[in-house]
Write a structure and sequence with these properties.
heterodimer, A: globular, B: alpha/beta, Pyruvate-ferredoxin Oxidoreductase, domain 3, Rossmann fold
Chain lengths: 288, 589
């Protein structure tokens, strides 16, 4: 079946309500293409969406999916994958969802290294609530809630991931369709937590971090002799305040997913429906 | 009252009080005696004191009483704390060679057994066994066959090697022999009979954990919190043998979302916490209900609000469980009333969760969580466990629940309110769900007509459950009595024992113990038939009394306790007697 799956099979019949030109269109297309390319189909794929403009993705894609509460998409995806490791789990959210209200979960999802991918549509702004500073907004980025700028440094998600023990860290740009798809594909194929921060510009509320800005400033690591398996090199790159990079910044070749480490390979939905499981009476005998 | 015997060991936190007490309780259980234990963290003087109390009888025991027959006192404070419970003829076992115990005075009418616990323990192989020396001395003081203690020691230390078991047995014998030799002329009146009955000994948290496994729960996510942690501790190492998994989450927000994720994947899934954790889980609780995800959430209540008294008893979370969360959330709230019911209500919770695709609270409390009780093993008859997964569709039946365009309808509007459920991986069942209001396919909508249909559909599940399920209360006492006493949660056992005190005073009482808090039984007729209704609960404001007044459009009398300690039978009987007489509950200073 997988060979016949086209990326459009992952499209739902709902028309996106994102603003024309929103980066999320390209981000979602790349996700769907990468899912199809890696042999998945809507019936074995589970998408978990956060809250925000990005969170609407669950509605626009066709697969098993849930759109949860703000900031908790990662624990939900983690639970899905642990309960049925045969499913392809992809978690999608925004910079507010992942690095502000859900920042605690980000650190621990990275540590756990469950085999799923996490795509963050980073537009450096809160779009759905009409333009407030996000955790990745620049220090001097003026908004209604921060008229003089946040006056605090933006969260560095790549460095945060590395410090938390990430085994796969990547960054892409929604407008570079081929590279974005390729990077998401690598995140899916990685045995562990595949983290991709996607620059997904907000054309309505962010006039600083624009398509033009990213096109002009992004350095594609694929065009250099960078070795993403070198953790020391990755440290330098993720802390480089002068440049923004696209590509895989770090990949641990020895990564071992949580499921493999813990021997999780069964579909937990499959239980004996005739009564208590075989051997349950031993549990009672333990209390003698 | 059963011919009961009351024993305790007390000392400082860190003295191994709990594990020693449990070893003795287990020995009594193995000797075919019924046991009801309690943990006494409540100090009359200051913090740091802790005691493990064991009430035992050849008959069933259901509560604690204010009497101590044998006390192992590791500190002088242990004696001071328990002076009111000790009586003429009580035995106090202590180590006079311990510096702090050298000057201790045992009141004249009691019997002091001065046993060099530490020295004898060292003779047996290590000072750490001094509490076991005391257990040996206690066996002698109660004519209790020490072989039952041996059996309990083997259970406790068996997996750490035979030599450790042997050393402990030797320590117990040294304690026993010391009392034989030095107190041969002392009249020790206690005589603990044994029977051939087989009992199991467990607490409420363990019963919840065992119930979960029995019900086919495969996934548990939780964050440690007193007094719910033992549910997780129990499951860890056991649920794996049944193909399940336990995750320690980074916080309660993650815990319920992990559990939700596993439930969306089709696993029977659970989290357990206490009040502060329920606070954090409330937002997701609404998502669970709106996305119609089956999930079991245990609240093992403790004293609140805020951090409150984390190791003290209270039933203060009822309103939270009934009403918590923004918006209007259909749910079930089950409250087991005994330790064995913790098992059965957990099993039932999983079935209700899946049959009605709703979140289900299992409301336990600290008094039940930390209380070890004996039961006949048949009380946990695994053959009686039934599994009902509700309306799950497969690759063929999924066809009956799709739109013309082929979209599966996880929120299909049905007569009973229950929609079909497709586990991920089911071909043709791909769908989304969301905490947003949605259409039958789970896609966001703000259409007024669909909004009303979906709200009504979700609420209709509760009405369907009222028709299909038996939510009757448990009944005790005299069914024709004019006085009706209603309670919920762990007070049931104490109330049943209080009956005997009340009967002795010529007061007849009918008791209704309510294990279903939502949906709950309609007690209007019962209230009408009674002259007086008293509602007993461990909180200050009478949350259940409020609910029942609202249900029955009547007024009730209230007996409340919120000092952090569970009711005792004689005390509760007195409270009820005074309340019925219009004198009001006696308030302790």
């Amino acid at each position: 079946m997988s060979s016949q799956v086209r990326f459009t099979d992952f499209k739902s019949d709902k028309q996106p309500t994102w603003c024309p030109g929103c980066g999320d269109f390209g981000t979602m297309n790349g996700m769907m293409k990468a899912l199809a390319e890696t042999g998945n189909d809507p019936d074995n794929t589970f998408v978990v969406a956060g809250i925000g403009c990005s969170g609407k993705i669950g509605t626009y894609m066709h697969s098993y999916a849930i759109h949860g509460v703000h900031g908790r998409a990662l624990p939900v995806g983690t639970g899905v994958k642990m309960a049925n490791p045969d499913l392809e789990v992809m978690v999608a959210g925004g910079d507010g969802d992942g690095y502000s209200i859900g920042a605690g979960h980000f650190v621990h999802a990275v540590r756990r290294n469950v085999d799923m991918s996490y795509v963050v549509m980073d537009n450096r702004i809160y779009g759905l609530t009409k333009g407030q500073a996000s955790p990745t907004s620049r220090e001097d980025f003026e908004t209604a809630t921060t008229p003089d700028g946040p006056k605090q440094p933006p969260v560095n998600p790549l460095a945060l991931a590395l410090a938390s023990g990430a085994t796969f860290i990547a960054q892409s740009f929604s407008s570079d369709a081929l590279r974005h798809q390729e990077i998401v594909r690598q995140a899916i194929e990685h045995d562990g937590f595949g983290f991709v921060n996607v620059f997904s510009p907000c054309v309505t509320f962010n006039d600083v971090d624009t398509y033009d800005y990213f096109r002009d400033s992004l350095v594609d690591l694929a065009e250099t002799d960078y070795d993403p398996t070198d953790r020391e090199a990755a440290k330098e790159k993720v802390l480089d305040a002068d440049k923004e990079y696209m590509g895989v910044l770090y990949r641990d070749e020895d990564s071992r997913s949580y499921e493999r480490t813990h021997g999780l390979d069964a579909d937990m939905s499959d239980i004996d429906e005739s009564g208590a499981p075989e051997g349950a009476m031993d549990l009672v005998r333990e209390f003698y | 009252m059963p011919a009961d015997f009351n024993w305790a060991i007390g000392g400082e936190a860190g003295d191994g009080i709990d594990s020693t007490g449990k070893i003795f309780a287990q020995a009594l259980s193995r000797a075919g005696r019924h046991v009801f234990t309690s943990k006494d963290f409540a100090s009359r003087i200051r913090g740091g004191y802790t005691a493990y109390k064991v009430r035992t009888s050849t008959e069933k025991v259901r509560s604690v009483v204010d009497r101590l027959d044998v006390l192992v006192a590791l500190t002088p404070r242990t004696i001071e704390e328990n002076l009111e419970e000790l009586h003429d003829g009580s035995v106090v076992i202590y180590d006079g060679e311990r510096t702090t115990m050298a000057d201790v005075e045992i009141p004249g009418e009691m019997i002091g057994l001065d046993v060099p616990l530490k020295r004898l323990a060292e003779d047996a192989g290590g000072a750490i066994m001094r509490n076991v020396v005391a257990l040996g001395a206690a066996c002698e003081a109660t004519s209790f066959d020490i072989e039952h203690l041996d059996s309990s020691l083997k259970k406790r230390f068996g997996d750490k090697g035979q030599s450790l078991v042997d050393n402990n047995k030797q320590a117990a014998r040294l304690g026993q022999e010391y009392v034989q030799e030095h107190y041969a002329d002392t009249d020790l009146e206690y005589d603990l009979d044994t029977t051939d009955n087989d009992y199991v000994l467990l607490n409420g948290d363990e019963a919840i954990g065992m119930g979960a496994i029995a019900a086919g729960c495969r996934y548990y996510a939780g964050y440690p919190i007193t007094p719910a942690t033992d549910v997780m501790t129990y499951l860890k190492g056991r649920i794996e043998q049944f193909g399940g998994h336990v995750v320690q989450a980074e916080d309660e927000l993650a815990a319920i979302n992990l559990a939700l994720g596993a439930a969306r994947a089709g696993a029977r899934s659970m989290t357990a916490t206490s009040g502060p954790g329920i606070d954090l889980m409330s937002e997701t609780f609404g998502l669970v209900a709106t996305s119609e995800t089956p999930l079991v959430v245990c609240d093992v209540m403790r004293s609140g609000p805020s951090t409150g008294m984390p190791t003290k008893q209270e039933q203060g979370d009822l309103n939270m469980m009934l009403y918590g969360g923004h918006g209007e959330i259909p749910r079930f709230v089950l409250a087991p009333t005994t330790v064995d019911e913790c098992f059965w209500k957990t099993v039932e919770a999983f079935n209700l969760a899946e049959k009605y695709q709703t979140p289900v609270y299992v409301a336990s409390d600290l008094a039940m969580a930390v209380t070890e009780q004996t039961f006949e093993p048949e009380a946990f008859d695994m053959d009686a466990v039934e599994i009902d997964r509700g309306k799950v569709v497969d690759e063929e039946t999924v066809e009956d629940h799709r739109t013309e365009a082929g979209g599966f309808k996880p929120h299909e509007v049905t007569d009973d309110g229950i929609s079909p459920r497709a586990f991920p991986g089911t071909a043709g069942g791909a769908h989304m769900s969301t905490g947003l209001e949605h259409d039958e396919q789970g896609r966001r909508t703000e259409d007024a007509e669909m909004r009303v249909k979906q709200v009504d559909k979700r609420n209709r599940k509760v009405e369907t459950a009222r028709e299909r399920e038996d939510f009757s209360p448990r009944e005790f006492g005299d069914p024709d009595a004019d006085n009706l006493v209603v309670t919920w949660g762990s007070n049931e056992g104490t109330l049943v024992e209080a009956l005997e005190f009340l009967e002795a005073d010529g007061i007849d009482v009918r008791i209704l113990s309510v294990p279903y808090l939502f949906p709950r039984p309609d007690l209007a007729e019962e209230f009408e038939a009674a002259d007086e209704v008293v509602v007993v609960e461990c909180n200050a404001t009478g949350q259940f009394a409020d609910v029942l007044e609202h249900d029955t459009l009547s007024r009730v009398e209230r007996v409340n306790k919120y000092d952090g300690v569970q009711f005792k039978a004689d005390e509760l009987a007195d409270d009820i007697r005074r309340t019925l007489a219009g004198e009001g509950q006696e308030v302790e200073a």
